């Protein structure tokens, strides 16, 4: 302790007339500096993020002016709060991708490949949780056409056409809450959105932010939103949101009440959420505090319905893409699985593949043929029919184990009467 005090005295004796503080003030970095340094002879200067034109000039210089205008505009829009070191790292990635692809001039594809997986230094490692770094397309999600359209309009279009939306006088919604039965594809469609989103993504499981220490849960919420502002444009993805924002007044310790109050402040507070978007998923929207559901916080509350017949057919076709299933009538299978969720259908296909494996391996063993040369197998219609008899959808399983009055489908607003 004495050593630290002596160092502070030495700094004061040097008579610095200016100190430049560069960092994210929202994370409380100023509070970590010894107050004895803040004397009348010291002046504080904050370095603000680069403007759009400044980022464009830096990227041009770092890329040696060999960048196509479309790729440059895409990189400039993506690097909203990047520092000079971030821009240098990004430029090196862009140049490297261009050389790997054999382009003399940096093209739009080179920029997109360089942006994939790029994270600014301001985003801590613990928040760089990728939402499964798998390249997913909207075609990989069966059904949910209405949900896909809403997510595209709210998240993709404003970032794809920023000038058009910037000149609009209409306040654009930035929060979407997806709710519905368990297994209907809420998390999958959010992962697909994160894959389509070429900016920063922060993935948060609701219970991860809760702590037994007083004040730490609220601090975790502030850090998440502070990190999102520092690395904007950014998307925050909350999974199992009902565990983070339950109704106030129902808890014993009051921790959940303070967390909800902090969420209310961050989602629609004084500071605002410029270029920060929020998407959350839950099975029980009836458990979430009503103040979180009002417009201005979550502007769009979208229900993910159980898949209809044509949706189930689409899901089955997607699940059987990598399997030889030419003789399967997906129309009949979809008709026989009324009330099944997407997760139930995935389990059905898995069970059908196991049945096909047993059928083929048994036939080969009967002929005393080695299995090494017969790794590929065909999934037939009968395998899926047998799997339907052996499988049970989640709704039937819960009804058989729970009392009838307590068996409420997740996400459905109903009463016990």
TrEMBL record:
It comes from Setaria digitata. SUPFAM superfamilies: P-loop containing nucleoside triphosphate hydrolases (SSF52540). Gene3D superfamilies: 1.10.8.60, P-loop containing nucleotide triphosphate hydrolases (3.40.50.300). InterPro entries: AAA+_ATPase, AAA_ATPase_domain, AAA_lid_3, ATPase_AAA_core, ATPase_AAA_CS, P-loop_NTPase. This is AAA+ ATPase domain-containing protein. Signal peptide: none annotated. Keywords: ATP-binding, Nucleotide-binding. Residues 172-308 form the AAA+ ATPase domain. GO terms for molecular function: ATP binding; ATP hydrolysis activity. Belongs to the AAA ATPase family. The keyword Nucleotide-binding applies. GO terms for biological process: protein import into peroxisome matrix. PROSITE patterns: AAA (PS00674). One of its GO terms (cellular component) is cytosol.
